[in-house]
Amino acid sequence: MTNLNSRLAERLKQIRAERGWSLQQLAEASGISRSTLSRVENGEVSPTAETLGALSTCYRMTISQLLAPIEAPFAPLVRKGEQSQWQDADNGFSRRVVSPPSGGLSAEVVRCDLDAYQDISYAAPSLPGHEHHLLMLSGRLTVNTSGEEYLLEAGDCLRYQLYGPSRFRTGSDAASYLIVLV
Amino acid sequence: MTNLNSRLAERLKQIRAERGWSLQQLAEASGISRSTLSRVENGEVSPTAETLGALSTCYRMTISQLLAPIEAPFAPLVRKGEQSQWQDADNGFSRRVVSPPSGGLSAEVVRCDLDAYQDISYAAPSLPGHEHHLLMLSGRLTVNTSGEEYLLEAGDCLRYQLYGPSRFRTGSDAASYLIVLV
DNA sequence: AAGTGAATTCCCGTATATGAGATTAATTTC
DNA sequence: GAAATTAATCTCATATACGGGAATTCACTT
């Protein structure tokens, strides 16, 4: 995994260069010594999660934002578990895959129409971590995911990454919404 | 930063529990010893980036996906009223960034409303290769990109990757559409 | 070119993350 | 219940990440 270290090194060098900081300044801001910073930025060592946390904090970003550009895209062969879900639509619920992923594209758009007084739950996905953008077109919808509950109205946009079970339900109003799956 | 280690520990424990793996199985799949895995999952040590990489690989996810749930969350809900709107001066064109990119997310959704008899051209993007999904909400729109011309109507979805200049125009009908930028 | 200052890298001692094996705890099987 | 099997933790030795300071390199000035 030396490859990861060298890519991380390049990334960190670039970020520090963008901010115009010296190792000394970064050391004071992060609480990490100059020597460690030098070795990390030269790919000689693999920093600990704590070190990564300190760096991302003083750069005002999350570790994910720090690492996302240097990670290999994950395997695209991932939607078997989802497709079975697409089929079990009840009566008050219709889904249409507006823009299926194909040919190397990485996003798909699904339009969903849910009647009033519907309640739909999904089990945790087999391959978690997909990024979702839920855009309300009309109506009202209550969404539970990641232990949080959101009441959405037309025009709202809810973004989340799907790691566990989720639940969608309507009250007296029907709901139409788009889900952008990345 | 012990807090980070303990949250990471919980996260890793949960993932392994979901898959029903033992430490022994995870050790063989990841190349990390059982003892190290035990200490990491108990928050006693801070794993190196290499260790995180090995774990995320054998769990079939990126490090970002591994860490995202335990990091300070970005605002996941963007209300309609909070979405920044761009009124392109005098012309009958308004854009609203429905879902701005942040927190390591890789897609953004823009809603565009174009009046009748408008003609808008874009130069080649500075960062080419972005994947676009254009979803027509209502009206009619003529799009030129990659040397092709498309006439879109409500419900249509055009997918393309933007490498060169592009042109959007309406005839007697106004157009509303979404652009999903990946 | 040489000097001055800053920034970075190298060297060493220390702290800690890791691996291999032994010990303990939990579960199953008879 | 006891033995057997598996899973998790603990012990110790090693590898390596880290901090402090010295040495080097780099940039700029005169």
TrEMBL record, chains A, B:
Protein name listed in UniProt: Helix-turn-helix domain-containing protein
Domain HTH cro/C1-type: residue ranges: 12-66
InterPro entries (UniProt xref): Cro/C1-type_HTH, Lambda_DNA-bd_dom_sf, RmlC-like_jellyroll, RmlC_Cupin_sf, TransReg_Diox_bact_type
Keywords of this entry: DNA-binding
